[in-house]
Structure formats: C-alpha cells, structure tokens
Amino acid sequence: MAKPQYVQQKRSLISLILNVTQLAMICGPALLLMTAPTVTVARTMETKRLPRSYTDPNVPLGPPPPPPLPPLSTSVDTASASSPARRFDYCAMAAEEANANNGIVPYKAARGCYEMFEFDPLIRDQTVKSVRANLESFYVFYDIAKSPPNMENSDLKPVDLSASLIALGNTTFRDDYSFHAALASQISQLQDPHTTYKSMCYQQFLFIQPISTYGVYEDGRNQVKVATVLNKLDPRLTTSLVDCEVTQIDGQPAFDVVTKFASTKSYSKDRGVRLNKAFSYLAHDRTGSAYDRYALGTFAQRTKVPSNATIEYKIDCSSKLSKSAAALTTSSKETPPLQTTLVLAWSALDATMLPYDDALSYRQQFCSQNSIQTVKKFVLDTASADDFGAGKTELHSGRKKSKELYRGSYASFHMLSDGVTAVFRLGTESPNKQESYKAGFYKNIDNGFAAMEAAGAKKLIIDLQNNSGGIICWGRYVLQTLFPSTVDSPYIYNLRASPLAQALARATFTYDQDVTSPYEGLVDPTTGEEVSNDSWMNPGDKLHGREGYFSRKVTDRFCGAVDDIKGAADDALFEAEDILILTNGYCGSTCAVLALQLHERYGVRTVAVGGHHGQSMAFTSFPGGAVQANNTLWTQRIQKVFKSLPLYHRTSDLESLLPKSLPANGQLAFTFRQVMSASDETQVSEYKRIPSEFRMDYTSARFRMPSVLWEDVREEVWGVTKPSELTEDETEDGQSTVPEDMVEEGDEPTGEDQGEGEVLGGEEDEELERAAEEADREDLEWLQRFESQSK
By C-alpha distance, which of 754, 757, 766 is closest to 470? Predict the structure, then answer.
C-alpha cells in the first residue's frame, strides 16, 4: 500500500496555517465548586429542603421590590432620575451575592434581576420587524417550515414564521424578559439549531442544578441515574449518590419528566437525540489531556429561567448497593442511603464579562444595542473512569481498556483490545480559541492517522458523539484523509432567491461589491471556478415541492489543505466496509455533513447509541448548511451592498425588505445555505431523516467508560476478534509509541475556510472549551471558561 498522502503532504500544510490565530479566548481563573467537605446522607427516607429565603423568589431579603424599570428605549440618565436608589434592586442583590460567593447567585436574585425591566412595545416592534425581514428574505427553510415532511420518531410541527411573528408583534408582555423569551421559543419551534434568537441581556446567568443525570436502559427498563453532584452548591450531597437511580422528579417518573423537557428543545428533529442532549454526557477533552469532561446536559444547565425555584428528586441506591463495587465508577468511601428525597435549589452562575452594581448599570452593560455580546462559559470538569493516560488496563467485566495512540485538542486515537480495531474520536471541527492550546487541527488528524497506521489498525470506529460541528473545510479534510481519491467538491448548496437576495447578488458582481457581499467566494461545482456574475442566482430556479425560487447549486471556495492531500484510492488506510460511524445522534452541522457524506457516498455503516429503547434514531442532526450568525455585521454588509445599486434599482419595495439592526443587544442566527443530499440531489439533507443501521442503549458502563462502548460496538457489528500480540511499537504500560515523522508541534490551523460573520455549526451554550489547568483527577470541579464570541 502506498504511503498515505496525509504523511507525504504534511510540509505543504504549514504554509496554509495563518488565520485562526485571530480568534482568541479570554482566560480566567478556575472557579472551584467541588472542594467542600462532604456530608453523609441519612439512610432513611427523608425530604430535605433549603430555607425558603434562599429558594423562594417571593421571600425578599430587603424592602419590597420596586416597580419595573422604565423601558429600554428610555435613556439611562432619564431612567436614573426616575428610579430612586433607595428602592430594592434585584440586580444589585445579584452583584453583591456574586462578589461574596465566587460567582454563585441565588435563583431569586437572578430571576428578579431579569424581571426588573419594563416591557417596551417599541423594542418589540423593531425586534420583530428585523427578525421577519431576515427570515423572510434569507432563511433557506422558510417555505418548508410551513409544511414539513413527516419524519419518523419526530414531532416536527408546521411553523408559519410570518404569521407567528405578526401575532407576537401584537402581544403585550409582563416585562421585557418575557417578550424576548417568547421570541426565542417561537424560533426554536423550527427545531433547527442553526436558527436561533437570544437576547444577550438575558444570557448573563447560567442556571444549574447541583445534580446532573444520565439515561440508561438496564434491567429491562429505561432508568435515570445520578451522573455528577456539586456539593459546593449543596453540602448535603455526597459522591456516594453517583450512579444511584433517580426514580421520581417532582413527583413524576423521572424518565418521563426528562423526556417531556427534551421535547420542548430544538437540538434535533429526532426525539431520541433531544433526549440524549438533555442528559449529562462525557465530552472529548479540548486540551489534549488524557481524560475527558462531563457536561451537565440541558436539563440541569439552562440559560432560560426555570419556572420553579427548586426540583425534588427521589433517589434509590438499593440497586447500586447490590452490585459489585467494581462495576461502577464512584470512588467514594461514603455509604449511600437506600432511599432519599432531596429538594434542590436552582443556583445561577454569574456569566457577566463586565462589572455592574445595580439594574441601571446592568442594563447599560448588557442590554443596550451596542453593549457587550460575550459571556463566560462553564463546564463540569472531571476525570472519567476510563482515564486513557493511566496505567490501569482492566475495565468493566474484566475487559481490557483501549490503548491511546495519540491525542490532540480536537481528536484522539485509540486501539481496542483486539489490536485490529482503532477508534478515531473527533470532538469538534471548531477552532479552540485559547492561545496556549492552538494545537492545529490538521496536525491532530495527520498524527492520529500516522499513529493508527504504525499500530497496524485494520478497522476503524469513528466516534462523533456530541460533535456540534465547526469549519466546513475541516470536515472536508477528514473526508479527504479517509478517502483521498475524492476529487469533486462533496458539499453542494443552494440559497434562497428572494427578490432582495437577487438584487444583492446582482450588485455584488455588477458594482464590485464582492469583498463586502455575503454572496462572494462561491464556486460553480460543475467547473470548480468561482462564480463571476449573478447568473447562478438570477432568475432563480424552482425546486420540486418547494415554494419560491432558489439559486443554482454552488459550493464553497477552494480549501487549500484539502487539495494537498488528494491522492489515489490505494492511499486510503481503511476500506469503506471496515469503517463504522458511532454517534448519539448529536452530530450536527459540519459533523452531520461529514457523516452523511461518508454514509451516502461511500456506504460507511452507522451506529447510534442512547435515545428511547426500541425506537429508531437518526445518526445526525441539523446538517442544514452554512449559518449566518452575526446580526450587526450581516445587516451592515447587505445594506452597503444594496446602496451600491443605482437609485432606479433601489425601489421602495426592495427598500422595505432590508433588515435593520436589532434595537437591543441580541443575536439572530439562521440557515443561509442548504446542503443537498449526496445520494439524491433533489433532497435537502435537513429534512431527509436517515436512521442508523445499528442501535445500542446506554448502560452505566457504556456511559462512564468509552472503551466499553467501543468494544460493544465492535462486537455488535464485526463480532469478537482474537486479541493480537503486542507489537514492537508498544511500550510496557500498553501505550503505543508514535511515529517520528509526525507533523511538528509548531503547526497551527488556518482560518481561510470560514467567511467573516458566517460560520457553520457554532457550538451551543452548554458545549464549551477548556480554558484552565488540568484539575485533580479524583475530584469533580467547576472550571470557569471565558470565550470571546463576537458574532
């Protein structure tokens, strides 16, 4: 077999690595929340509650709350004059509590701060008008959202965006927060994670529970179990509760409660995927360390204010106590209670990036049109039981832990106990923005594949669980590495050809606006050349079963690094039949497009894990296409392009369609280009549900230990293979050495593939990047992340 192109071409990559260095993460100190002493929970059934003064928003700490603040459209000076300082101020309370308690804010203070701002009809009207203008002219699924196709295991409902936004614009709300929350909820009904609205005024607190949960199918039934505990938030909790079953939440069956919660979310059009996202999950580390991170899941971590101040959990540890201690992962020396009932309060973490003292300064810093759009990010940090860097090799039921071949900031590579099956665990295609961790995506992939080749891998599991996407050319690089003979552009798009879009496309090429225009840089997939006029957009084409007009098919601009590794089919390290894709369904955006290309083009088989037992599940989510995520920059660009048109082309009708900037601090994102199916060029990938070929359930061992899941997947699809003998490349501790010809450490990724203000698959709020030193592997901690995310 010829030497793989990803090794031969490594030097040519260095010249391409230029632009991502402009992305930066502002780093701060760790916020340690898991170091408080633990307290043993009694072994009797008992309901334990926190004082009402901490949890009940109706119990004030000071004087009665004041009337709402004046509308946001009122100037700060005028508002200050009409709001005497002696009135009780929940935002001031939140600031004081955050300063005194390492950023932890009581639920009632955070909620009270949000609800202090008076509803402003002017803000409502201007916001709704701007959102409508953008979606009606540019949202590529605007028409299909009104009459979506039937999709298995989905509860997708028709959404008439214009009608629903008009109705919202005629509604009066209790306060400003309620309006913005209603608008966000309306957009989320599309179940398109690329298309969202959020007011940054109300993203400044992250509401968390001190217990997170995960879902399994064991003993013939769906179960909810304790994934993590945060005893700094509630000292009654001990790690002995970890892996105990949560039987009820607020008096209802726990699994039903989480399922109902997940049904309201927009993470996927598939019910099972939404359920997986609601639960805690073990995420690939973004720093290159040998262990991984737990994310809380969206049930226990929310940006929207929870409706109640507390949640009641009924916890049963009898099953855990009856099993062998070796079967589970907790190292706690505490003995858990047989049963207990806990009433746990929501806490809010202060995510603000600028100081504030009261409601007026809060509004000025975070709510006005030109205020900051950045918030701190948080993620639960813990070592997994399957610590790949540790010397221990035994796993659940006596099986061997996988050997880690190579790990970088974006992906890790492992060898299973058979010595034949490798695992390529790809956590993201989104750049790690922290300066000290810019390891380089291309280097990570090249080194990992070289390590697999050196180890003699013959089969490959590609683990794409909880991968929310990133830069499209990074996904293409992975595809090209796996199948070097891919010669044509694999990702084909088209765009909405609305009257305004057609006018902007005309101006782009007729009046030399290609630098500014969002329509520049597109490529004709039939010729490989960049489009040089607007004939691809005007007069527009009709698509089967779709309303309105669409552009001809286009693709992305040239990806230099991808072209460098093109080669013959013999250069591929694995045959298609020897590759598996493993996801929990939450493989979105660039990840989804990559997985679909592997499956539809090359016949790579798929495995989905989790969801609802016995129900089919899609192995990808929201492959929709490129997303426009910066309202301010987007509006400025299209207005500039429009104004380049002669006056006789700038009709009043077209002028009325131009979106204006949001009147308050907010972010509107929407799918701008739609990906077409690789196997059916008339089908939009977003609405083409492809179920996985193999289905597996999570168990406690599979949730805690990736190696157990990987071994089970291998046995399910390929059967049991005899373990191979150690090779000369393996060290005594079971870890494989890496080839000497790997790409050097100084390499960095290029950002040439991503247009300004236009990204594919930005990560969701709860999926965050590592920005601190490694934590003690025996403890659970909260680490505070800071990320600059100007959109």
Answer: 754
pLDDT over threshold 60, residue 91: yes
Beta pairing partners, 496: 550
**Least confident among 62-71, 90-99, 436-445, 534-543:** 62-71
Q: Which residue has the higher pLDDT, 733 or 221?
A: 221
CA gap 438, 459 in Å, rounded: 30
Contact 566, 486 (CB under 8 A): yes
pLDDT at 313 over 80: yes
DSSP 552-592: PPBBPPP-HHHHHT---GGG-SS-GGGEEEEE-S-BBTHHH
pLDDT confidence of 774, banded at 50, 70, 90?
very low
Q: Residues near 325 by Cβ (< 8 Å), separated by ≥ 6?
A: none
Strands 605-609 and 694-696: parallel
Closest CA to 347 of 254, 214, 211, 248: 211
Q: What is the mean pLDDT of the chain?
A: 80
More confident residue, 177 or 629: 177
Nearest alpha carbon to residue 743 among 485, 381, 448? 448
Here the tokens at position 68 are 């709402």
DSSP structure string for 65-82: PPPPBPPTTS-HHHHHHH
Closest CA to 421 of 409, 407, 405, 408: 405
Domains of the chain by residue range: 5-21+383-490+561-623+685-760, 31-266+293-382, 493-558+625-675
User: Does the pLDDT at position 135 exceed 70?
Assistant: yes
d(CA 757, CA 628): 7
Nearest to 443 by CA among 739, 746, 751: 746
The residue length of the chain stands at 791
CATH 3.90.226.10 describes domain 5-21+383-490+561-623+685-760: yes
- 3-state secondary structure (DSSP) of residue 246: strand
User: Can you tell me the distance from the alpha carbon of 606 to that of 596, in angstroms, rounded to the nearest whole number?
Assistant: 10
pLDDT band at 729 (very low <50, low <70, confident <90, very high): very low
CA-to-CA separations, 525 to 528, 554, 599, in angstroms, rounded? 5, 6, 21
CA 630 – CA 26 distance, rounded (Å): 20
**Tell me: the pLDDT tens digits for 271-301?**
999 999 999 998 887 777 777 888 889 999 9
How would DSSP label each residue in 438-476? ---HHHHHHHHHHHHHHHT--EEEEE-TTB--B-HHHHH
CB 681 within 8 A of CB 492: yes
pLDDT at residue 561 in the model: 85
Residue 76 burial by Cβ neighbours in a 10 Å radius (0-12, 13-18, 19+): middle
For 680-694, the pLDDT digits (tens) are 888 899 999 999 999
In tens, the pLDDT along 332-361 reads 557 778 899 999 999 999 999 999 999 999
Q: Are 608 and 595 in contact (CB under 8 A)?
A: no
Answer for the pair 593, 675: CB distance below 8 angstroms, yes or no: yes
How many alpha carbons lie under 13 Å from residue 435 in its C-beta half-sphere? 5
What's the CA gap between 351 and 432, in Å, rounded? 20
